[in-house]
């Protein structure tokens, strides 16, 4: 299924929407770039990042108006497990293709952020991509409280991008289509204002003083009109400097960077938490309840297998960063 567009229609097939910087030339579709692709990637590269289940994959499906792609199988489960790039067919800006790059969720319990950053860098080197033109950070507006994991995800994101590149960052707030009551709407609008005045304050610039556009925080309402409008507006903003993870791609290792130390500290925290979980599971297995219940033991054994798998992933990342040696 594709979004049927009139090539001469500058609205992108969305009624009432006038596009200025992106131009549809036919039915829109998202073409996945295979991992073994050996061709060129030449165009606008937009990286999608954010906490697990924040709506990154849903945004791609909305751009092409196709909810049957299977990208966002269940955004609450954080479906994306590997970096996956898509070329939006029949949509260009200034004669260049548009690529949307989906990434695993930050603070995903199964995927360390260092692995995700390493994948992004390797992908850029493979296709000789020097610059990520725009970076979208997705945030669920319904989460009225900043949990520990969301705060950590935000801090890691800021560390790998840097304030100097903030004009290429766009914060995409999601889940507006899930608001049903006036109370929910009031809380969502309050949090939207809080994002601007508190959580992203350090990335914002006083436009009156510096005459520069402030960090863009926008509302994505889960429609094609909304998604295309966001793309159209973001490509016209100032570029700014390199993201920190873009600097010295082929010559510098993560562990030698400032943000690498933050990622490394996060890995140690993950490792400690996983070891503590294993200890609790073992204590539960030794309990009288588990000894008397085959079903409970089976559940605990399965849980232990999953946690041990996560431990191996974290230890592999620590080893890659030269920070782990198993005794």
Question: SSE layout and pairings?
Answer:
Blueprint: E1 23-32, E2 43-49, H1 56-63, E3 84-93, E4 96-102, H2 113-126, E5 134-140, H3 148-161, E6 169-174, H4 182-199, H5 207-210, E7 216-219, H6 224-234, H7 258-285, H8 288-292, H9 294-320
Helix pairs in contact: 1-6, 7-9
Report on the structure:
Strand 5 (134-140), helix 3 and strand 6 form a beta-alpha-beta unit. It is globular and about 65 Å long. The protein has two domains: 22-235, 3-Layer(aba) Sandwich (Rossmann fold), CATH 3.40.50; 254-321. A seven-stranded mixed beta sheet has the order 1-3-4-2-5-6-7, with helices on both faces. Helix content is 39%, strand content 16%. Helix 7 packs antiparallel against helix 9 (294-320). It has helices spanning 56-63, 113-126, 148-161, 182-199, 207-210, 224-234, 258-285, 288-292, 294-320; strands at residues 23-32, 43-49, 84-93, 96-102, 134-140, 169-174, 216-219.
**Largest sheet strand order:** 1-3-4-2-5-6-7
Under the CATH scheme, which class of the largest domain? Alpha Beta
CATH superfamily of the largest domain: P-loop containing nucleotide triphosphate hydrolases
What is the strand tally?
7
Helix content: 25-40%
Low-confidence stretches: 1-13, 74-78, 207-212
Q: What global shape is seen? A: globular
**How much of the polypeptide forms β-strand, as a percent range?**
15-25%
Backbone structural class: alpha/beta
SSE pattern, N- to C-terminal: EEHEEHEHEHHEHHHH
Write down the Rg: 21 Å
Q: What characterizes the major β-sheet?
A: 7 strands, mixed
What integer is the average pLDDT? Answer: 84
Head-to-tail CA distance between termini: 54 Å
Organism: Panaeolus cyanescens
Pfam families: MMR_HSR1
Domain G: 46-117
GO molecular function: GTP binding
